[in-house]
Automatic annotation (TrEMBL):
This is Chromosome partitioning protein ParB. It comes from the Bacteria. It comes from Actinokineospora fastidiosa. InterPro entries: ParB/Sulfiredoxin_sf. SUPFAM superfamilies: ParB/Sulfiredoxin.
Amino acid sequence: MPRDTGFPLADAENDFLRMRRRQVLSRLGAWLRREPDDVNIMLPFDEVVAALGRVGERRLGLRTIDLDSIVGSVDRTRDFDRRFRPTSGRARTRWERLALAQRRGESIPPIEVFRVGDLHFVIDGHHRVSVAHAMNLRTIDAYVTEIITRLSAEGIRRRGDLIVKDYRRIFLERVPLPEDARDAIRLGDAWEYSELSEAVEAWGFRLMQDEQTFLDRATVARRWYEEEFVPVVTMVRQAGLIDTQTEAEAYLWVIAERYRLIRSHRWDDDVISAIRQGPRLPRRIGL
């Protein structure tokens, strides 16, 4: 707990002022470092669940959770920043009342949260979370409801990450790959998931024309991965054309180069040689 003066009311007031200073300094620091605008913004629960695809929920009851795992809110994203520091003086009266109770050792009821992966989103108890941070606590008691989603919440650090998750979810609806193949398809640019979806669908259309039969999306996805993606990535890797990119990024680049250079959808040694003599696959920074 922060150093106090022995006067709980004055200390509670100082706690709030200290948290407000930290919020202002954090915002200023992010601006000076030219960080993305959303680096200190609390994650909105509805947007996260929409991006990941909601499947269901289950009540887990009373749990003790890490404060640092609380990254978002159901409806109070403007009142607090990512670290639950107040963004204005609107919450001051209620905040100081809770801080005073905390300092006096009074009983504080558990908060209520949604859990998505290992992330938690506050339903009720935003001020209690903020005060707990001010007191330098590490955990807090919470009634937890777990939200089950189609995609994992892994990799979500800020609001901008939701765009990639949303496009990936749509990609997997259009290209329903088997579970063991999904992890191989990773793209850093959200829009590239749309490009890859169209490439797979075009490949499936040509396959159905060649075989004169209808194939459902799951069959096209499985056959594209086994008969197109894996062999092509193997050839590209053997040709030394993959550097810092993911395999899916390398695949997208090489099929575009193939068509640009030879206007063909075939694969053979001549195609790879032509691509090797063309411009190198651009490096991706920060992946």
